[in-house]
Amino acid sequence: MTGKTHLAFGILVGTGYALKTTSDVGTSAVIIATTALFSLVPDICHAGSKIGRHMKLLSKLISFFFGHRTLTHSFFFMALVAVLLTMLNIDFTYIVCAIIGIASHILLDMLTPRGVALFFPLDFKVTSPINFKTGGIMDLSLATTFSLLTAYLIYVEMFHRTMSWIN
Ligand SMILES: [Zn+2]
């Protein structure tokens, strides 16, 4: 899946979570941005990815030792990030953002033929029975669908707010 599609899905998931958690616009923006950022983090194992390009050394080290779509695309990684952020005393809401962001990424990569090593350190790759190639028409359609859904969620929320404000 392309970085664009991962980002679009991360924003959608983050928007859904923000709408469920808070009515404050500023907090919502931080929730959405955090979730979106973490939806790109697993691809740190690809030096050419959006996030890998910014952290070349770490990216090369991870792909050298673990390969692509292994460590950073697993339950183990989600647990690791949760523990690290807890140790750093990060607010629980944002730990949830990180986890759902990473989970959204892994879920999308399961839709590609290569799959992901979800149960890392086990080598076994998990792929959805319905899958399609990265960068194809399905990839692009998903990115568009996710963006439209996000716009719809925000529209519905604003409509409700306006209505309750008028009444
Ligand atoms: Zn990935």
Secondary structure elements and pairings:
Layout: H1 3-21, H2 25-38, H3 56-66, H4 75-87, H5 92-109, H6 137-166
In words, what does this structure look like?
This protein is mainly alpha-helical and 167 residues long. It has one domain (3-166). It contains 6 helices and no strands. α2 crosses α5 and α4 runs antiparallel to α5. The termini are far apart. It binds zinc ion. Residues 42-43, 69, 73, 105, 109 line the site of zinc ion.
Rg:
17 Å
Broad structural category: mainly alpha
Query: Low-confidence spans: pLDDT under 50, at least 5 residues?
Result: none
Question: What is the CA-CA span between the terminal residues?
Answer: 45 Å
Report strand %. under 5%
Q: How many strands?
A: 0
Q: Tell me the count of domains.
A: 1
Give helix % range: 55-70%
What's the main sheet like?
none
Spell the H/E element sequence.
Answer: HHHHHH
- By DSSP (H or I, 4+ residues per run), the number of helices equals 6
Please tag this protein with its features.
167 residues; mainly alpha; globular
Care to give the gist of this entry?
This protein has helices at 3-21, 25-38, 56-66, 75-87, 92-109, 137-166. The chain is an all-alpha fold.
